[in-house]
Structure prediction request, 766 residues.
Amino acid sequence: MKYRLLAPGPTPVPEETLLELAKPVKYHRTPEARQILAEVLQDLQYVFCTRNSIMPMTSSGTGGLEAAIANCLPAGSKAICLIAGRFGERWRSICKAFGVETVAVNVPYGQAVQPEQLAAALKAHPDAAAVCSTLSETSTGVGHDIAAFGKLVAAAPALLLVDAISGLGAMECRTDDWHIDINVTGSQKALMLPPGLAFAALSERAWKATEAARLPRFYFDFKRERKGVAERSTAWTPAISLIQGLRVALQMMRAEGWPNVHARHERLARATRAAATALGLRLLAPESPSPAATAVMLPEGVDGSALFRYLRDRMRVTFAGGQDKLKGKIIRLAHLGYVDAFDVVTGVAALELALHHFGAQVELGRGVGAAERVLAEGLPARG
Amino acid sequence: MKYRLLAPGPTPVPEETLLELAKPVKYHRTPEARQILAEVLQDLQYVFCTRNSIMPMTSSGTGGLEAAIANCLPAGSKAICLIAGRFGERWRSICKAFGVETVAVNVPYGQAVQPEQLAAALKAHPDAAAVCSTLSETSTGVGHDIAAFGKLVAAAPALLLVDAISGLGAMECRTDDWHIDINVTGSQKALMLPPGLAFAALSERAWKATEAARLPRFYFDFKRERKGVAERSTAWTPAISLIQGLRVALQMMRAEGWPNVHARHERLARATRAAATALGLRLLAPESPSPAATAVMLPEGVDGSALFRYLRDRMRVTFAGGQDKLKGKIIRLAHLGYVDAFDVVTGVAALELALHHFGAQVELGRGVGAAERVLAEGLPARG
Prediction:
């Protein structure tokens, strides 16, 4: 049976990129390899909307987040963690592991942290050294207003650290204009690559903070990486094949045009929400939806975990389920990376069919129709 | 022109493995993915010669070494670093970054640290919490007698940490029998994979040390990884495509038979040394040679850096040059991973031709002949 991946990371990888991964491995300290890395890092500056250099790391996204904490926070300092879901929680866990005191700003899962909440936290904790947020909180399908957060944090001594792992590339994220001090992403989301690479962009404020920071780091030492990047190289042996693949993936997105990439994600997300609503399903995050993934509440009486497994194992359509307290209650449809209108149609149709099979009251085709009414906007002009 | 990679990492990747990397990416938390990971980790136990579980990390080998230090050494403790080259130096740099005091046991580049030197260091520093060594010191082509080190360290309270990145798989390394407490390797050496994965095996003593260790760690937290591995999973999103590829590479090595893999490396190394000697070239490490790579001293009057670049850019044969104070003085011929007799013949022929082109007195074919006399031992039996 055909396999279909509609989870919020890893995401489907374009065939052109996969073929790049199958090319013979070449030595990484050569003029040719330097040229490839330089091209990738330059393209990424465009994706990050930054004039600053991009630091590459061979790790999952989590490694990039750890790097942000370990390089820029003094031990014993304080960080405000904006927590709207599991990935906000991860920021707090990393801070704790590194002996950084945390102030949590929590919202119920499905809601976004509001700028006023951050303003109040900054006022109550003027000594905070950092504010940690997610761009897209994939566990709930919430998107954060980083531009508003950035305005507030820029006026404070704190640094703004953003986990943009599942959002960057899928939505606009203007690192410099929005005053993001460290912006981190991973390869296996909008960048259409297998997992294994992380990237960070640092502001001048962040680089200055690395001077004072005394937490131990070696593999994730931004200063070593910066020295590497200045020589169009990396501090440690990089995942070369992934860098080769990323060059091709970035070329594809450049050809599509970044505004078009963002508009596509926004449209696919809107179509997915329209479909769920038409099917009578509630959205977990109706107010501040992320363009990366949509969390749909499953109807009462449907065993969500069984539905998820049925979709994955019998229909071979892999969504993501709910995590922790959301387990079995939601299903997350990703529209992230190498996906188009027909992937959304497939996802919605699979959900309709599976719900029907599980005895829920759904009118087959109703969700797909609602999705198509949105997707029609994205049709190419007639020739 | 054909490209030939004869450097000690990254090493050539078999076509079968490359094709595996080009397969569609699938979700990593599924029964299917768990099965693949479990098979890989089980095969690796065999490579490591250990009954203990293997901890997978998505990083270069350096990340695995940092993990060993950060998880098992108390801050402010003392480590004896056995330094026979650049990679021994790396152990010391990591210890320094993590506030671990270091005692260096140095030998001139080209020599191996002797067990008696370690015995003396252990006697002088009975409070040492760890001894850090390389198995194969690739920067000089030296192999260390880890079995002898292990006997000494087992009688002390210290842990034995081994950087087996370029050696494991190319030579016997009996983790359990030799009392190695943490044994670390990477994917891009004998394991015939692109860079991006590291692995560590921990002894019970090492696991006990993780309890007392208080250095901060999160991404490289062995206890989180152990929990993941118990569920046939990983703590963080792994480099899935590399794990898929590794399964195939391990299948190939299992089919060859590990004793045969080791014998092949030993034979190719011996052939390379015989060739260099026949050409009148001195070996940097004649006494304790590594089966992974051979460092050959270049004749006086030959510009080593220019020779290296000529081989790489004009003949498209990539060796490794010398690093730091060995720059321009040596050339390192690797015989590591997916390599056979004809790769050694090619490497030696390329070296003869390049030396000839640079005006050195070499009899063309003499090195190849000497290599063939050794390689003849490995010929298959007549049908």
